[in-house]
Amino acid sequence: MERLGYELAELPRWNCCGTVYSLSTDDLMRHVAPVRNFVRVQEMGEGRLVTLCAMCYNTLRRSAQFVSADPERLQRINAFMDEEPDYRGGVEVLHLLQVLRDEITFEAVEAKVERPLYGLRVAPYYGCMLLRPRGVGIDDPDRPETMELLFEHLGAEAVDTPHRVECCGAYQTVADPGLARERVAEIVGAASRRGADLIVTSCPLCTYNLERHQLVAGDGRGTGARHASHVSRHGIPVLYFTQLLAFALGVPEEELGFADAAIDPRPALSQRVGG
Amino acid sequence: MGQEIMERIREANEAVITGIDDADIKHWVTIYIMGKAYRVPADITLMQAIEYAGYRFVRGAGCRAGFCGACATVYRVAGDWRLKAALACQTRVEDGMYLVQIPFAPAGKPAYDLEKEPPEGSVLLRYFPELARCVACNTCTKACPQELEVMDYIQAALRGDLAAVTELSFDCIQCGLCSIRCPAEIVHYHVAQLARRLYGKSLPVPEHVEERVREVEAGKYAEEFERIMSLGREEIEELYRKEQREKGGLKSGDASRVTRNGRGEG
Asked: Is A105-273 in CATH node 3.40.50.11810?
């Protein structure tokens, strides 16, 4: 973000957004976690909260709407959190993709590119949490184009894949890994058939599922999906959009965590972009 | 031996009013110990008041100086809806206090082998998966008699930040009040202890410690140790006073306090 001339300040004493629990509408206790983060934003004298994670984004934004929609709910939460200043409402929750698109603008990002991704075929994967429900989504839930436009401005070619707005299997990866494996086999299989070098996500859980279940599918164990064998042959690296962005902006490769990826993206990057 | 030491600590901490005729005490308050009313002198600690009322601690009292965490107490004051928590040895009685002691917090402590665990944040979630149940209600923080930011360190544990857990939990005395109050049933103090151990393990051993260990192993202090171990109590006390005088750390008045049955006059 420094390279883009944009300053983000870490929220002091931030706590977990509460993930899916915070989306419950009949249990106000679950909204204490997101609202406490809004209080921290308020204490900083700021009005906007930016997150990199689609799950945090969805949870925080929906909770912000939930408590703003009904002053009585907010009052009850404030009364419970009597050790904090009252949350007055009004904190705006943004995903980093929105900041890049709407505030910094992709044109300004393009002007800072030091390693254009010419020739790299990138398949964006949105999953669910960034696009739904409609009042929360950052883009058209059926035909999003935010990541496509970003990657094109970085010099890459965005590969259109049919499953990019579908669920990756999410937390079913714990309860029913077979289900997540099937989802991933379809998603990755389609990306592979369309010649993608990389899949790029905006959600840590999507990243986890897409990486891990490719490796499991690679073992050929019970995916039951048509494309399992195809997937195992290719093994498409999965990157977070920030990793690809930072790479294009010229951030040194060793700072980008490529070595920690389950499927090493470096061969694909060096083959296409020339490292 | 242990019993004798505890008895001496108890005597040393007898209420300031010990030995004074009740008729000479002007200010009194009423407290309720497990529901029963007792009239006790104002201005003494909860622990002194409980003993004044006739109870004798078998468990639930240790150092009597705010360090051991054994005398966790939960109370309400008449007219205030809040449930409060405190250490009995560090808190003064208030009129209308309803209190009960929590000498032990039932909290599962998993067995782990520190030698086998890498100093990584993920270890915490492996042993304490219930960490993920935290709803950020902050009740643990409100219960902490040490005024630690307990919820903040649980959140730091959740994201695997061992250094932050160590910093935030360092003054924990393991009284267990946080874990008694937690709606997510987290055992905060055991989580923090594991985090501190892992973090400590990750730090390099300082050069001066390594140097000293080498000296000890080479027998540099063996002779001095043997000499001290062979001394009697009086000789050790005399040696201590001499050392302190040489350092200028002990005033003449202090020296006399040490000798009197080995206890202070507090």
From this structure: yes
pTM for the whole structure: 0.83
**Residue of A13, A30, A83 with shortest CB distance to B135:** A30
Contact check, Cβ <8 Å, B136/A32: yes
B31 φ, ψ (degrees, to nearest 5) = -120, 160
B135:A81 CB<8 A: no
B151, B140 in Cβ contact below 8 A? yes
List chain B residues with CB under 8 Å of A29: 135, 137, 183
Reported ipTM: the value is: 0.84
Q: Which domains does chain B have, with CATH numbers?
A: 2-101 (3.10.20.30), 122-202 (1.10.1060.10), 219-253 (no CATH)
What does the pLDDT profile of chain A (275 residues) look like in tens digits? 889 999 999 999 999 998 866 677 888 989 999 999 999 999 999 999 999 999 999 999 999 999 999 999 999 999 999 999 999 999 999 999 999 999 999 999 999 999 999 999 999 999 999 999 988 999 999 999 999 999 999 999 999 999 999 999 998 998 999 999 999 999 999 999 999 999 999 999 999 999 988 887 654 443 433 444 444 455 899 999 999 999 999 999 999 999 989 899 998 898 877 65
- Which of B137, B152, B158 faces A32 most closely, judged by CB atoms? B137
| Secondary structure class of A124 (helix, strand, coil) | strand
A33–B136 C-beta distance less than 8 A: yes
Which positions in chain B touch A21 (Cβ < 8 Å)? 135
Which residues of B, range 112-131, sit inside 8 Å of A by Cβ?
Answer: none
Pairwise CB contact (< 8 Å): A80 & B137:
yes
Q: What residue ranges in chain A does DSSP mark as E strands?
A: 48-51, 92-95, 121-125, 157-158, 198-201, 238-240
Q: Does B158 touch chain A (CB under 8 A)?
A: yes
Give phi and psi for A106, each to the nearest 5. -65, -30
Domain ranges of chain A: 19-96, 105-273
Pairing of strands A198-201, B36-41: unpaired
Using a CB–CB cutoff of 8 Å, tell me whether B50 touches chain A.
Answer: no
What H or E segment, with its residue span, contains residue A256?
none
